[in-house]
Design brief:
- The chain has 163 residues and is mainly beta.
- It has one helix at 2-21, and strands spanning 32-38, 44-54, 59-67, 75-86, 91-98, 103-111, 114-121, 124-134, 137-146, 149-161.
- The protein contains one helix and ten strands; from the N terminus they run αββββββββββ.
- The longest helix has 20 residues, at 2-21.
Length: 163
Amino acid sequence: MRQVLILIAIIHANLLIAQSELSAFENLVGSKWEVVGKWSNGEDFRQEYLFEWSLDKKLIKVQTFGTTNMLTGEYGLRNEGIRFWKENEEVIKFYEFDIFGGITEGVCTIDSNSIIYDYVYEGLTFRDSWIFKDLNTYQYVVENLENGERKELYQTSTITRKE
């Protein structure tokens, strides 16, 4: 009986750790978020995001809406992704599956209420930052890194809660 209670306590503690590690996403869940801006080359950029909890708050599902056809400018569901606490590595991992057949994976770092995504895309190292400003606003920064330092800034915009 003692072993069962210890096992239950360990499982419960692991659930609490996963939930606390993902707590920076709490503000995002249940709302639609939108970023409207321009890339550094002057092209327009617009995306919307929907976040929802799954698996008893051990997983976050994300839908991203954006340009799905570069030639026609068609707009729709572009990516679906997940964020989760990977205990054996003690990191928040993310995966994004896009409409073009691509998969992007990386690591999320939480800095207070800000969320930083680091990943490799087409052989380059990128960082997307959601820098917390207030409950309805984040600064959105997309940059290319080399040896941990900014090599190129692609975008700085504002993400706002829409609903």
